[in-house]
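Field log, afternoon session.

UNIT: design team B
ACTIVITY: writing a sequence onto a fixed backbone
BACKBONE:
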């Protein structure tokens, strides 16, 4: 029996109920299939990783680019796919709602909405406006009873406003506005993580692990329900590519090829 979109969404919701799971971020169909092969229970898109794969900087991908990418990921694997939907590709709540409705149609099991503006002078949306954006996304998801998990993100730590009290206040407000899961990318210490988990309990918390830090077990012990890694796998892949390409360009040698993954193994995995 084939796995339906409804099955994926039910599975994704179930994953948020107990325990802690890692939600790795592929950047294309091949990396998505590889993560499925490795046994992960769900995956999430990465705005940065996808942008780099099509020769763009992060936050320069269009709505149409993102929707096509999400459709491809959902069609490629039998796993739930969570969408890094940036800021909803719009400012006004009603437009966020319209775009979220389109994202739901791609087959995603979850999506996140950020509160960053992209404006260095005023990096976060005004609190009440940010709440309305989450509320609009919630309404769009509920319009067809899709069951998509909505994650509310406060970007304070990523935009130079690392005020934990402010971040927690916003996350609580996003929870009340309908977010199923809460996310404060950039928090790193055990104290920060534990404070966020406690503040939004019983709602699940997503933690970004984009650097060498706490292990999955340590994070789980702090009460985190979901771990994502953003563009880190993509950066790791680009690291190998750039080291090998730079060696060829600068030295005319090819020693980095020895660190590549065996082509035969890749053929077996995708066969």
């Amino acid at each position: 029996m084939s796995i339906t979109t409804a099955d994926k969404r039910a599975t994704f919701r179930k994953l948020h109920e107990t325990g802690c799971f890692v939600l790795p971020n592929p950047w294309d169909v091949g990396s998505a299939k590889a993560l499925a092969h490795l046994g992960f229970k769900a995956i999430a898109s990465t705005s940065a990783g996808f942008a780099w794969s099509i020769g763009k900087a992060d936050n320069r991908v269009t709505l149409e680019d993102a929707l096509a990418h999400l459709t491809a990921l959902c069609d490629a694997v039998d796993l739930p796919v969570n969408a890094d939907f940036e800021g909803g590709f719009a400012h006004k709540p009603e437009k966020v709602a319209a775009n979220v409705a389109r994202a739901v149609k791609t087959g995603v099991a979850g999506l996140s909405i950020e509160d960053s503006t992209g404006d260095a002078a005023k990096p976060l949306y005004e609190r009440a406006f940010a709440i309305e954006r989450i509320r609009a996304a919630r309404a769009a998801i509920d319009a067809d009873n899709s069951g998509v998990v909505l994650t509310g993100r406060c970007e304070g730590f990523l935009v130079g406003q690392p005020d934990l009290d402010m971040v927690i206040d916003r996350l609580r407000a996003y929870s009340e506005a309908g977010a199923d899961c809460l996310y404060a990318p950039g928090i790193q210490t055990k104290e920060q993580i534990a404070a966020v988990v406690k503040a939004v309990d019983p709602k699940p918390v997503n933690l970004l692990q984009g650097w060498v830090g706490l292990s999955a077990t340590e994070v789980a012990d702090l009460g985190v329900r979901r771990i994502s890694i953003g563009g880190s796998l993509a950066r790791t892949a680009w690291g190998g590519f750039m080291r090998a390409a730079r060696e060829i360009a600068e030295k005319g040698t090819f020693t980095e090829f020895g660190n590549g993954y065996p082509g035969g193994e890749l053929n077996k995995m995708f066969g």
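LOG NOTE: The chain has a mean pLDDT of 97.
NEXT ACTIVITY: expression trials, pending approval
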